[in-house]
Structures are given as structure tokens and as C-alpha cells.
Amino acid sequence: MKKGRPLVRLSNTSLQLDVMGREAQVTEQLNFLRNTQMNMETNRLNLRRDLLEINLQISHLERRLAQSKSLVAKGVLAKDQLAEITSNLDYFKARKVLTLDRQKQENSIRKLQVEQLEDSATMLQKNLQFARKNLDNLLIKAPVSGYLSELNVDIGESKSRGARLGQIDIPNEYKLVIRLDEFYLNQVQRGMTVVVELESGKVNATVSKIDSRVSQSQFQIEVDLPKHTHSIKRGQSIDAELMLGGDKNDALLLSRGAFFTSSGGNWVFVLEANGDKATRRNISIGKKNQNYFEVLSGVTLGEQVITSGYGNFDQAQQLKLQ
């Protein structure tokens, strides 16, 4: 199975209707934007035409005013006609000022309105692209190259959001799933070393994921095995050793035994140097696994400890060995 190869095509009527609705909204918004831009352009041209006509009237009136002043001075033209020309000239000058203010105001409003409409259209187009992407995702493709080991789909079957459709196994890349008692939840960290026992021997792996959800008093961790690890099949059981107290070479370890039932790990019998006596001694233990206890204090490296049951002499302070 190559990456990107189509596997299953799903159908979602609601999503298809949503995409169609979004397409209609985008088309409507773009049409409204174009109509608004056309109206604004028409208003802009009308204002420019009005300014041209006003400037033309002002030019004519200024020329007539200059001619009329000389005629009035000669007594040929009445002063009332001169006053009328002056009044008309003042009117068109004031109208020009108003038209320029209107042009400036409309340019500002037009710029703001066009920006808002363009932002709205851009947002609708992004939403449409997102909806189309979801529609394209109905065609399920292989996310990676590998072996298609599982495909749980049937024609006409309904699948809920997040449902598992299948599985692709990547050759020579495996992860190990381990379930641990909830007691160790606070002791396990990502990156911790795990010794995995395979047919070819022991290999070191690392904890890559910790699922802290507790189910039936257990939680789950995932361990990434080294690449190109051979002779492994999906579902296979593998022995693994997780040293919660660190490496064996860095911790003082005591083998697990029946003594823990009587002492609770608070004390043990330690053999003396001559080997004929064992003295009760208080100890402190730390982390543990299925094989060892980590000893924090009470005994030293090289001392021998009785790890069998203490049921018959758990009140004694010293034992004589024969």
C-alpha cells in the first residue's frame, strides 16, 4: 500500500449541502461587492461631472463679471444685472466647496465600505475552502506506505465521527503497548529505558507515550522499538523490563521474596560475616518491579539477606544458623 492511495469514499449529505450553501453565500457576497463598486464608481463619475459643470459656470460668470463691471462704469449696463452675476458667481463657488467636501467624504466612506466587503468575501471564501477540504476528506487515502492489515468498512454502513476504519502496518517499525498497575503511574516518565527481550536477544527501547487514563486499576504506556527490528508480528506478546528505580548498576537491589509478607519491607534478617548468625535490621525500600526491590538504606553492597518467609520467627531479633 503506497501513501496517498484511495481506500474508501464516504458520503455525507449534510456536508455536501453545507458546501453548496457556502458557495451560494460567496457568490451572493461577490455579486453584492461588484454592484456596490459599480454604484460607487458611478457616483464618483457623477461628482466629477458636477465639478466640471460648476467650474465651467464659474469661468463664464467670472468673465461676464469682468465685462459687466466696465459696462456699468460706462453707464451702459444696470447695476442690478451686475449684482445678479455676482450673486450667481458666489452661489457656484459655494456649491463647488460643498461638492468637494461631498467628494472627499464619499471617497472615505467608499474606501472603508469596500475594505469591509472585501474582508467579508475573503472570510467566506476561506470558509468555503475549509468546507471543500472536509468534502475532499471523505475520500480516505493511505496516510503512510505499508501493509493494509485491517479495513472495517461495508457498503452502506454508517460511521460515526472518529470511528476506526482500519490499520496500516509500517514494515520494521513497531511499538509495544504495556499495561501497568496504577501504583506506578507517577513513577513512569517519557524517555525511560525499557529492556525488551526478543528472539534475537535483549534490546533497549524507550517509553514514547503515557496514557494516564486508568481502567481496571491499570494504565497504558507505549514503547517505541528500534527500527528494523525483525521477527515481530502484530499482537505478539513480548517480555519487557522497566526499571523504575534506574539502571541496575546505579541502584542497590534486593530480590523479591516471601519475607515481604511478614516484614512489609520494613526490616530483614542480614547474615553476619561468619555466616552462622543473622541479625534483624531495619531497612528502607523504594521503587520495585516484579523481580527486585530498590534498597534505599539499612544494608550495604555485598551483604547477604534472607529473603525467604519469616512466619515462624518474625518476633526474633537474631537467628542462629546451622
From TrEMBL:
Respond yes or no to whether keyword Coiled coil is given for this record. Answer: yes
Q: Which UniProt keywords apply?
A: Coiled coil
Stretch forming the signal peptide: none
| Residues covered by the Multidrug resistance protein MdtA-like C-terminal permuted SH3 domain | 262-310
Q: Does the keyword Metal-binding apply?
A: no
Pfam families (alphabetical): RND-MFP_C
- Positions the record marks as coiled coil are 95-141
Q: Which InterPro entries match?
A: MdtA-like_C (IPR058627), RND_pump_MFP (IPR006143)
Q: Which family does it belong to?
A: Belongs to the membrane fusion protein (MFP) (TC 8.A.1) family.
Enumerate the PANTHER family for this protein: MULTIDRUG RESISTANCE PROTEIN MDTA, SLR1207 PROTEIN
Name of protein: Efflux RND transporter periplasmic adaptor subunit
Recorded source organism is: Colwellia maritima
The major lineage groups are: Bacteria, Pseudomonadati, Pseudomonadota, Gammaproteobacteria, Alteromonadales
